[in-house]
Amino acid sequence: MIFNSFEFIFLFLPTVFVVYFILNKINFTLSKAWLLAASLFFYGWWNPIYLPLLLFSLIVNFIIGTTLGKMEAGRKKKALLTAGILFNVGLLGYFKYYDFFISNVNAAFNTDFNVLNLILPLAISFYTFQKIPYLVDSYHGETRGYNFLNYGLFVSFFPQLIAGPIVQHNDVMAQFLNKENRKINYRNIAAGLFIFGIGLFKKVGIADTFAEWANKGYSTNGELNFIDSWVTALSYTFQLYFDFSGYSDMAIGAALLFNIVLPINFNSPYKALNIQDFWRRWHMTLSSFLTRYIYIPLGGNRVGPGRTYINIAIVFFISGIWHGAGWTFIIWGVMHGAASVINRYWSRAGFKMPKLLAWFITFQFVNAAWVFFRAPSVDAAVNVLKGMVGLNGFSLPSGFQNTVLSSLNLPYYNFTIAESFQWVAIALLIGFIISVFAKNSIQLRDQLKPNIISALYIAILLIYSVFQLQQVSEFLYFNF
């Protein structure tokens, strides 16, 4: 089930909400069981075949975590933790990377090993990154007292199950156990609906429009010229931000209805003044996970400049391959690793540059790196980048005109190609202004004053968005 669907908005979410708070007045264990069952139903709605794997992983990790919490420190405890981590990494690796590995072996050594064409289980990347920290915290004795119901709810709580934010057990479990959170909180309902509405509009009103232009460009077989390449690259840059931040907003909003505050995942990343600042703002829960469970254990910045740079490169290599089994993702991760090393060296040397120039360089680097992240192949990415620097010419292809007009749902009035491009330029400018200059959704939520104006504002966004639900589209991070 997806957030931007009639089933979720008008059936699933209201039903789960009403029954949950009714059961809270009867028996809290029943209400948690209801929420866990509803979350598993939410997960299985998309494709029930994935559900047994999720349950199997839940049970195995709970058994290992519980055992770790009871063991005394020693080699056996470390061995069990290692086995638990390898179990999770192995499960993710088999489904996500087996075919990629075999395909590259066949290409490199001219072999003919069978490719299994495995279907990636929904959300496996996200729930794997929740279970590993749970095992590590269990090893340190920080998860005692959890039963399977609490653990299952922590991992599978439906707002954040599919695409984050990636939560740690201490982010949410204390909230579920808080007696005050068992009561309906009208302030949280107002804030939850407010940010959910903003997230829904980001997805169906903004991201899906940019998606048509990005998809057009990345599916083109021929060369892309200067203008078309920039439209393609910028369209995806804004599509990805509004799509993923929109999902995170909707997740945070839906959770607030149940009085659960999920961690912030985006903080205006396109306002960043350097690449380190960008990663403090983009997919913040992933950055936190990589820092806490990979960068710091490797030694972080406590091991001298040379080792620090290697640690940074390793973290971003892992980030790249976590996002997808493909060389484009690896290149994207390596690019961000290299940029982060340069930024760290620049800072250590005490160099500075004007803020506007720093922002411009950061944004353009992120935009160029997204080309590899989105492109179906390295050749396709190179084609777009060549066009962006003018190596493929400067004229606007005539076929682009109809794509623009159809995506904007405008009547066809024999617009010229130049007039069609104006619509693109206006849309890109609006996306740029919102993402770089406007307050983000979390700031708006925190400043929310429930009144007629805010009610009308969110009602307009919701009404418009609901009318767009006939064109159902997946969230981008469902693919990762």
TrEMBL record:
One of its GO terms (molecular function) is acyltransferase activity. Its main location: membrane. The chain crosses the membrane at residues 6-23, 52-68, 80-98, 118-136, 148-167, 244-266, 308-335, 356-373, 420-438, 450-467. Keywords: Acyltransferase, Cell membrane, Membrane, Transferase, Transmembrane, Transmembrane helix. It is found in: Cell membrane. Coiled coil: none annotated. GO terms for biological process: alginic acid biosynthetic process. It is a multi-pass membrane protein. One of its GO terms (cellular component) is plasma membrane. InterPro entries: Ac/AlaTfrase_AlgI/DltB, AlgI, MB_O-acyltransferase, MBOAT_fam. PANTHER family: ACYLTRANSFERASE (PTHR13285), TEICHOIC ACID D-ALANYLTRANSFERASE (PTHR13285:SF23). Belongs to the membrane-bound acyltransferase family. This is MBOAT family protein. The lineage of its organism: Bacteria, Bacillati, Bacillota, Bacilli, Bacillales.
